[in-house]
Amino acid sequence: MRGTIAGIGMTPLTRASGKTELELAVEAARLACADAGLDPREIDAVLSYHLNDSAPVVQVARALRIDRLGWHNDISGGGTQAASILGDAAMLIGAGLARHVLIYRALNGRSGRRMNTVSTGPQERFTIPYGMAGPIPMFAMAATRYLHDTGLTEEHLHAVVAQSRENAASNDRALRRGPLSLEDYLARPFVCSPLRTVDCCQETDGACALVVSGVVPGPRIRAVVRGSGPGCSTMDRSPDVTAVFSTYVAPMLWTASGMRPTDVDVALLYDAYSWLVPRQLEDFGLVPRPDLGAYLLARGHAGVNPHGGLLSEGYVHGLNNVAQAVREVRGGAGVALITGFGGSYGSAALLTP
Known about the structure:
With 353 residues, the chain is α/β, with parallel strands linked by helices. The protein contains twelve helices and eleven strands. The mean pLDDT is 94.
């Protein structure tokens, strides 16, 4: 694939930004352009993804004083886009349609529109009577089955969350940096069993931006894939309610990249819920299922979400994980795996020096 991630920028992550989504997006975009050594007016394509909760790309381009805007797109979707939007940018560069592509995600996910509230769309009219109101009950059901199938317990879920806190301890951007003992974990209330409050990603105000370039050096986009199957997003038609996106995209990623799981130095996994970490470790071939329990309890896994991930750093719909992957490759990591999650559909990417 063509394209490097030449610049990254992030606003502070907070629970009350006091700014509009447009202000947040522009702040992160300016930081990313400065990191890439570019004037914002050199950007010739702008991409973003949203759930009707962000600033449109044309408004961001106008605020950055981009006089001649080329390809631009507001992509509908959430975390599933976190990795695959890199593929969109790389294809623009490869097709000769852009030299420098700005990507951003901006949201007031805590003080503004909150995602983990009950949805009242047409699908939910059928599921609410059965207690399936919003994403958490759906993924809690899948988690229950996954724990049963693997023999993992609440002690292992605690290990995931505690590890993310330990990794975030030295990250000044992280909103959750304090240690979490098993006793404290067990004392936290359930949102929907088996998921406690700390098993769920945060609701965060903030923005993250990237500059993908065909000219400026930086970590290279080696491969990006996107796919889906009849998993936990379509439980009524699924042979396996635990089959999340990684079940389908992991084989695609290794085929597309010509690489193997043993090539990965650091994994930036979309940890919307704690149980998704072992599921992805298994699916991407990083840890075999029989070894998951011992692996999680051993802790000390700085190579998995070293910044704390969405559970501890904050939630910018996964784009902050991509920014961390860039930091890791710049810092000497050979290969970074990035994932994006939306139930049984999602995306994954590999960055190399």
